[in-house]
Amino acid sequence: MRIVVTGGTGGIGFAIAEHFAKQQHQVVIADLQQQAIDAKVQQLTDQGLNASGMVLDVTCAESIAACAQQFPADVLINNAGIQHVSRLEDFPPEKWQQLISVMLTGPAMLSRAMLPGMRERNFGRIINVGSIHALVASPFKSAYVAAKHGLLGFSKVVALENADINFTINTICPAYVRTPLVEQQISAQAKEHNLTEQQVIEQIMLAPMPQKAFIGVDEIAATAAFLCSDGARHMTAQTLVLDGGWTAR
């Protein structure tokens, strides 16, 4: 199968790409920076794995069309993401719109572009990388929380519209994963809350999680692979939560 991973050079995206490549699938690492893409593709091809890359801006219609034409996906992983931490009244409107464009409109438009090919082949899997914040909220993250909540409703509609073919769409929702994006959040949250970075980790990030641990990128990759397995062929419109017990409270 051909697996297209947006945000494919990042911690979660590359872990997913590498996991599928090791299962002998063709992976396409799609991201914004050519140099980073080339480095990650080289890292996989050096292992004898089947990997390609392309520059993709999920907020650009022309870029999305080019991706769908060059690399029609059997499996689309909507993983690209950004973050901005601020009180709503201090949140720059253009930044708010950017987060929605990258994490909600982008996945919708890329899915839209890939769906005709999936329907023609009578096979498709779309996996959205959501967040615990698709289910709960935290202060200072209004745009991120809104986008991730929106992914769940979006997925339900697309599942219903394509229930007549061998197609599923699901959303993986991890609690905090120790990626560069989260490292930036730790610093930003420390500033907002007037705490040390260690206090942010202990008192904010891991406090709601009974297991008190960051989620591993390997867990997310393995969950994505399961969703593409025959054993998950009727699992669609679902939210798979990797949260160490957070939402059990």
TrEMBL record:
<comment type="similarity">
    <text>Belongs to the short-chain dehydrogenases/reductases (SDR) family.</text>
</comment>
<dbReference type="InterPro" id="IPR020904">
    <property type="entry name" value="Sc_DH/Rdtase_CS"/>
</dbReference>
<dbReference type="InterPro" id="IPR036291">
    <property type="entry name" value="NAD(P)-bd_dom_sf"/>
</dbReference>
<dbReference type="GO" id="GO:0003858">
    <property type="term" value="F:3-hydroxybutyrate dehydrogenase activity"/>
</dbReference>
<dbReference type="GO" id="GO:0032787">
    <property type="term" value="P:monocarboxylic acid metabolic process"/>
</dbReference>
<dbReference type="InterPro" id="IPR002347">
    <property type="entry name" value="SDR_fam"/>
</dbReference>
<protein>
    <submittedName>
        <fullName>3-hydroxybutyrate dehydrogenase</fullName>
    </submittedName>
</protein>
<dbReference type="InterPro" id="IPR050259">
    <property type="entry name" value="SDR"/>
</dbReference>
<dbReference type="Pfam" id="PF13561">
    <property type="entry name" value="adh_short_C2"/>
</dbReference>
<dbReference type="InterPro" id="IPR011294">
    <property type="entry name" value="3-OHbutyrate_DH"/>
</dbReference>
